[in-house]
Amino acid sequence: MIEWATMAAPVLTVLVVDDEERLRELVRGYLAQAGFSVLVAADGPQALELAHCHQPDLLVLDLMLPGIDGLDVCRQLRTFSDAYVLMLTARAEEIDRVVGLEVGADDYLTKPFSPRELVARVRAMLRRPRTSGQSAFPPGEAAPRVFGPLRIDEARHEITLDGLPLSLTATEYGLLAALSAYPGRVFTRAQLLEQVWGGDYFGDDHVVDVHIANLRHKLGEESARPRLIETVRGVGYRLKASVAGGQ
Fold it and tell me: By the 8 A CB rule, do 239 and 180 touch?
């Protein structure tokens, strides 16, 4: 009798970084029970060392850490890793800082939180393609797409602004991909969450606004005088159709 071997799905690794041992172990237990390989760190330097050595797929990262705080850990992480980052914060008003400019966090949870919700967020994030540009544009559109000063080359996975390379996080790239696929079309926050974060995302839709602000900053835009991304008050966002094709 021939037994056909089945290829098991790879076990994804999550690094949990929190200086509260009780919370750290609670999250570790829930994630391990959900089938993830889990590493833990109590501070920033240990987190960066583990991230270098093990290249985790996602970090659950507390904002308030001794020594190097979560924002600095995230900044340093982005120099060598494209792992997802789910930031934990104790205060809702810190949200803009958490997913702030050039930090590179992908999502956040405000303490106290449900461990089951955290696991659900982790699962949803890891179902998204991590590599920017992967499945970002409609198939078959290989020709570069030009929007005024912005040039998107799908085939090369390159974006330039005024002729200079533009560095975007995967989330920012996903938002730009969604908007630029249909110039002039207005996307609601819910539609952008569906396109970029996935249909099973159930967090605060304010995260869309923060990442749009980050993207605008990198595009050299002011929300009051946008060259490319317009806010449609009470509805959502769109890429200005008037700049399509380099007009």
Answer: yes
Residue 67 confidence (pLDDT) above 90: no
Residue 12, by phi and psi: left (phi above 0), alpha (psi -120 to 50) or beta? Answer: beta
CATH number listed for the domain at residues 145-243: 1.10.10.10
* The CATH homologous superfamily of the domain defined by 13-126: Response regulator (3.40.50.2300)
| Cα–Cα dist 59/104, whole Å | 12
pLDDT digits (tens, 9 = 90+) for 3-25: 444 445 578 999 999 999 999 99
Which tens digit of pLDDT belongs to each residue from 79-96?
888 888 998 988 766 665
Q: What is the pLDDT of residue 101?
A: 41
42-63 burial code (b ≥16 CB/10 A, e <16): bbbebbbebbeeeebbbbbbbb
Element (H, E) at 76: helix 70-77
Amino acid at 238: R
Length of the chain: 247
CA-to-CA distance for 106 and 87, rounded, in angstroms? 8
DSSP state of 9: P
User: Across the beta sheet with 145-147, what order do the strands follow?
Assistant: 145-147, 150-153, 158-161, 164-165
Q: Where are the domains of the chain?
A: 13-126, 145-243
Beta carbons within 10 angstroms of residue 197's beta carbon: 25
pLDDT of amino acid 172 = 84
